[in-house]
Amino acid sequence: MTSSPARAFTQSASSLLRREKFKKGRAKKSFACAQCGKRFTRSHLEIHMRVHTGEKPYTCGQCGKRFKQTATLNRHMNIHSGEKPNKCSHCDKSFTRLETLKAHERIHTGEKPYTCDQCGKSFAQKAHLIEHKNIHPGEKPFKCSHCDKRFNQSGFLRKHERIHTGEKPYKCSHCNKSFNRSANLKAHKMIHTEEKPYACDQCGKSFPQKGHLNVHMRVHTEEKLFTCDQCGKSFKQSSYLKGHMNIHTGEKLYPCDQCGKTFLWVSYLKKHLKVHKKEKPYSCSLCERSFSRLAHLKEHQKIHNGVKEYMCFECEKTFISASSLRLHERIHSGAKPYECSHCDKRFRHRENLKAHERIHTGEKPYKCSRCDQRFSQSIHLKRHEMIHTGEKPYTCLHCDKRFSRLGTLKSHERIHTGEEPYHCTACGKRFKHSSSLRSHIKNMHNK
C-alpha cells in the first residue's frame, strides 16, 4: 500500500501535469483581438468583437431591447417575468441578477473588496471605487446638461439636475409632499412619527435632525459663527445674517399682497399673512383656544400639564420654554439688545421694539374687519373687536362679573381679595390700583 507522503506527492505531480496540459491546450486555441490585443478562444473572440463593432444580435421579444450575449438577454427577461431567482441568505430580499445579490450581501457581511490605491479607502462595489477615484486628481467628468456645473460622481450630478427639472421622486406615504432627495424625505417623515432622536445634553430638548440640534446648541454656547462685514454683528445662523444684511441695503423683498407691508424674511411674511386670514388650524383639546402655529399649540399645552422644565439659576423661576427663559434672563442681566432706529430707546424684546417703532412711523397694520379703525398692535385690535362682539371672556372667581380684558379682571378682583400691590415710597401708603397711587403722589407729595 502506498504511504501517505508518497500519495500526496503523486497527487501534486498529477495536478501540475493537468495544469500544464490545460495551458498548452489553451495556447493552441488562443486568438488575439486585432483591435485591442486581448486573447480569447475562437468562440469567445467572436463575442468579444461585438464590444468593438457594437453588434447586438439578441433581441427581447417583449420590449425590443437588444443584447450582445444570450446570457445577458436571459437575465433581462427576468425583468418582464418578475422572476428573482437569487435570494439573499441574510434577509428576505431577492434579485434578478447574481451580481446584484453579491453586491447586496456585502451590506450584511461588511465586506469591501475594492480598495483605492491612493488613499486606502475601501468600497463594497467596484462602481463606487471608480467614482471615488475622480476625487484624487480633481477630475469632474459628469457635466450638467442645463448649466456649466461639473461633478466627480454621477450620483451628485443626478441630484443636482433635479434643481433644473423640478423632479421630486421621493414621496411621503403620510401626505402628498414630495422631495428631490431621500435624506429630505427621511427628515420630513419625522414630523408624522414625531420621532426626535437627537437630544440636547444641556436642557433635554429633542430634535428630528442632527443639524437642528447643532444650531440649537449655540443657544447654550452663545456661539455666533456668522458675522456681518458691515457692522460686525454676529449671528447663530447663516439665514439670520442674510436677513440682517437687508437692513443695510434697505431691501425688503417680501411684500404682503393684502396690505402692501414688506418684510425682510419670507418666514415673517408667512406669519403676517395669518393676521389677514385669521387662520388658526391647531386647536387645544383641553380648552377652546386655537393657534396659527403648531409650535404655539405645543407650548400652550404645557400650561395644562404644568410642565415647566426650564429654570432660571438666578431666581429659580421656572418656564415652559427655553425662549421664555432666555427672555426672562435679560431682567437679571439688564440686556436690551433691540435699539430703536429713530431714537435712543432700547428693548428686551424684538416685539416691543417693533410696536414702539410704529410710534415714529405711524404705521397701523391691524385693521378691524367690522369698521375702518386701524391699530399699531394686534392686542389693541383684539380688545377693540370685543366692542363689536360683546365678548367678555374673563370671569371673576368671586362674583358673576365678566370682563373683556384680563387687566380689568385682575384690578376688579382686588376688591374681593383686598390686595394692595402699589405702595408709595414716600409715606408707605398702599393702593389697589396704579392710577390711585399716581393721584396720591400728585396730590400729597408733589404740591
How would you describe what is shown here?
The protein is α+β, with helices and mostly antiparallel strands. Among the domains are: 28-107, Classic Zinc Finger (Double Stranded RNA Binding Domain, 2-Layer Sandwich); 262-445, Classic Zinc Finger (Double Stranded RNA Binding Domain, 2-Layer Sandwich), CATH 3.30.160. Helix content is 45%, strand content 13%. The protein has 16 helices and 30 strands. The strands form 15 sheets. The protein has a two-stranded antiparallel sheet with strand order 1-2. Strands 3-4 form a two-stranded antiparallel sheet. It is elongated and about 125 Å long. The model has no long low-confidence stretch (mean pLDDT 80).
List keywords for this structure.
447 residues, alpha+beta, Double Stranded RNA Binding Domain, two-stranded antiparallel sheet, 13% strand, zinc, Zinc finger protein 271, metal-binding, Znf_C2H2_type
Unreliable segments of 5+ consecutive residues? none
Mean pLDDT: 80
* Secondary-structure arrangement, i.e. CATH architecture of the domain at 262-445: 2-Layer Sandwich
User: Total helix count?
Assistant: 16
CA-based shape: elongated
State the fourth-level CATH superfamily of the domain at 262-445.
Classic Zinc Finger
Q: Hey, roughly how much beta strand do the residues contain?
A: 5-15%
| Main sheet strand line-up | 1-2
- Report, as a whole number of angstroms, the end-to-end distance: 137 Å
| Biggest β-sheet description | 2 strands, antiparallel
What structural category arises from helix and sheet content? alpha+beta
* Rg over C-alpha atoms, rounded to the nearest angstrom: 38 Å
**How many DSSP-defined strands?**
30
CATH third-tier fold name of the domain at 262-445: Double Stranded RNA Binding Domain
What is the CATH level 1 assignment of the domain at 262-445? Alpha Beta
